[in-house]
Amino acid sequence: MKYESFILENWLNPACDSEKNRIYLGGSCVLPMTVKELFELTGESLDDFLKWVADMNMAYPEFAGTERTRRAVSGLYKNVDWKEVILVHGGTGANSTVVNTLLEEGDNIISIVPNYQQFYSMPKAIKVEVRDVHLDIKNGYKLVLDDVRKAVDKNTKAIMFTNPNNPTGSLLEPEEMEELVEIARSVGAYIVCDEMYRGLKEEYMPSFADIYEKAIVTASSSKVWSMAGTRVGWIICKDPSLMFDLFNYRSYDSICGGKFDEYIFAIALEHKNKILARSRSIVNHNKAIIDKWLDGHKYLHQYADAYGTTYLIHYDVDVDAETFCNRLLDEKGVLVCHGDCFFIPHTFRITLSHAEELEEGLRLIDEFIDELIAEDPSRHVKF
Ligand SMILES: Cc1ncc(COP(=O)(O)O)c(C=O)c1O
Fold first, then answer.
1. How far apart are CA 20 and CA 23, in angstroms?
2. Which atom of ligand 1 is the closest one to the Cα of 228?
3. Contact by Cβ (8 Å): 85, 73
4. 51 CB contacts (<8 Å, ≥6 apart)?
5. Model-level pTM?
6. 72-105: per-residue pLDDT in tens?
7. Looking at the domain 58-270, which fold is it?
8. Is 222 in the pocket of ligand 1 (CB under 6 A)?
9. Is residue 91 in contact with ligand 1, taking CB distance under 6 Å?
10. Of the CATH numbers 1.20.1090.10, 2.40.160.210, 3.90.1150.10, 1.10.540.10, which one belongs to the domain with range 7-28+273-379?
């Protein structure tokens, strides 16, 4: 099977590893924690944990996934039983397991754009028709529900998207979620929602798993939980026959997850409020700095009410996004993620979540734009 190049991962990961990358503002994980920090934050005993590691039998874990972790994951939802949780290898493993299990040639899916590339390139590779519905970008990147209503039909297997959205951070309100469920239900479609960025609001953020029997929700330890290196992902599925198929596919793909990873992630989730408070505080702090920087900015605009870990910033400079970001990295050592990864020209994604030298990075972006305009003043174009 031939897959299209994964634009974001293939561009960002090498750039991230490059020596030129001095100030990394391109990612989307909340500042990762050390193991020590996790234990300090939770108040659990690191000594007991290290003893557990030393005595750990390195056989397979429970094939269905560590029960303690599945129970802890189900506690992130209002209406999910722990047996409806499948543990897989990262959010990426969750998404690919769902695509490969659910979809087949002849289906169509609705892809709400910008979307994570697994949700459109993988379906295309198995000859599924992908119908794009674009968020209304300048209107706060909001979803126009009527566009979805017009795009679905009886062959629509699933509506697939990310909520909160990556890269814009826009979020469906509870009434919009209900309406989307009603649209999916009218044609018997699944809602497949990547909820990797859920959890940053102070109040409970509803999940599609709470409200729709044909919801399939994916998420992982990477983003709001700051533990990407543990590679714990999960799928919530409430349909027993599909559940069997998902486990079956996972047997072909990875058999099961890692014992150590699932164990340490369970400890984190059992203190979910402390971890989320840390994440919110980091994101809110950085957001305030970036909001101040953007306020009245001559060249830069951000349109969303954002609840993820990134902003998508539009720039009024007539240089394509990949060139803009390559030059920014080459000339200033600042790495942001170019908006062509999301097919949104003249934009870049900037992190709200893990910047040690954020203010210096923002200053260098300003300096870089001033230099671009000084090189050629006709580049200042209002998009
Ligand atoms: C929307 C979305 N889904 C999935 C992933 C992959 O997550 P993981 O690191 O858990 O594989 C990412 C990573 O950037 C993402 O942004």
1. 9
2. 9
3. yes
4. none
5. 0.96
6. 999 999 999 999 999 999 999 999 999 999 999 9
7. Aspartate Aminotransferase; domain 2 (3.40.640)
8. yes
9. yes
10. 3.90.1150.10
116 lines ligand 1 (CB under 6 A): yes
Cβ–Cβ < 8 Å for 108, 133: no
Three-state SS annotation for 307-327: CCCEEEEEECECCCHHHHHHH
Distance from the alpha carbon of residue 374 to the mean position of ligand 1, in angstroms:
38
**Quick one: which H or E segment has residue 60?**
none
**Phi, psi dihedral angles at 175 (to 5 degrees):** -65, -35
Does ligand 1 have an atom closer than 6 angstroms to the CB of 309?
no
In angstroms, rounded to a whole number, what is the distance separating the alpha carbons of residues 5 and 322? Answer: 15
CB-ligand 1 contact for 108 (6 Å cutoff): no
160 pocket-lining for ligand 1 (C-beta < 6 Å) = no
**Ligand 1, atom 10, residue with closest C-alpha:** 91
Do the domains spanning 7-28+273-379 and 58-270 agree at the CATH topology level?
A: no
| Residue ranges covered by each domain of the chain | 7-28+273-379, 58-270
Tell me if 308 CB under 6 Å of ligand 1: no
Q: How far is the CA of 155 from the centre of ligand 1 (A)?
A: 28
- Tell me the per-residue pLDDT of 37-58, one tens digit each, with 9 for 90 and over: 999 999 999 999 999 999 999 9
